[in-house]
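Re: duplicated header lines in exported structure tokens

Our pipeline writes sequence and tokens for each protein into one text file. With two proteins the header for the second block appears twice in some exports. Here is an export where it did not happen, for reference. First protein block:
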Amino acid sequence: MSKQLQFKLVLLGESAVGKSSLVLRFVKDQFDDYRESTIGAAFLTQTVTLDDQTTVKFEIWDTAGQERYKSLAPMYYRNANCAVVVYDITQAASLEKARSWIRELQRQADPSIVIALCGNKADLSARRQVSEEEAKKYAEEEGLMWAETSAKTGEGVQEIFTAIAKKLPQNAPPSARGGRPGTSARTGVDLTKQATGAPGQNEPCNC
């Protein structure tokens, strides 16, 4: 019997590193050179097929990178199963910002969260300020997944989300529920086992 698992994914990172473009490429396989900055957060969904038996549905929260929205971020990464922290390989300061997001996740998000560090704009490697070696070493030290992507060309985009899907628990019990960060390990919701009814009655909710 095939099963579909559902996980909450949040994107974090400085403004203009390409978070929204990354999501647009992943969800719709599109790229827009002139995307406006996200206000608050945007919500999208996309499904990844792992094998004949298992599909993973991501509930994706694409958060705004501007400093004035930073206080809203915990609303989105709380109870998240996974996070993609994005930096721009042509901007060294954006990696420092990514490091601060990762420290915040390590302090405040659920301990079981899967974190991927993603260096975007790989198509602009001629203007690179962050070396692969530096970012990869940091990711290894912190126990993070790491990859470089190009939302513009699509390079590495599907691969990073598929790798995250594979790293998430595949045996999510139907009773998995979102509690306060740190109260219990988060697992995904197995959609194939859900009862009908409103979330919060007899059904797991991945809100």
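Second protein block, exported in the same file:
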Amino acid sequence: MSLITWAYKLSEDTLAEPLPRRWAHVQGVARRARELRPLFSERDAEVLEAAAVLHDIGYAPALATTGFHPLDGARFLRDQVQADERVVSLVAHHSFALLEAEERGLRDELETEFDLERPELVDAMVFCDMTTTPDGCVTSIRARVSEIQDRYGPGELVTRFIKRATPGIHAAADRVEARLAATRAVAIAQPM
């Protein structure tokens, strides 16, 4: 079974029934990851898509031990035989998780237990997650950040975190979009 096939099956088995909206979101994030394939080697693209469909697995009620889904999900995945270390790292650190971990008093645990993946893949994971609605549709960064703030409300931990992370989210998306534009320009310039 390929890494991607395994990731989809595990994500569906874990999220689809208890959290159908979350399952829709991760499928949308994975579709965004497939759109970024031209930016990466075959192996990196596979790692990104697998991480995309698994990034919110820590929300599953059966896995939520700390209440911080990147850490809970990465710990669960680390114990899976077929899990790829790089996928686990992307899940652990997706979408500026270190900032939220800090808000929760879990930064040391997250940093100690899980390495950061290469910046290009971290940026791509942020881009995919933060341009996908909770229902799995494509959206803008601005709309997604606003939706998160509205969902959690003023003064809540996640709202504080997302406000701190917003400049980094925009910067990561800008880097991904610049790489996409450069890739398209090269493709157009190549003779047929």
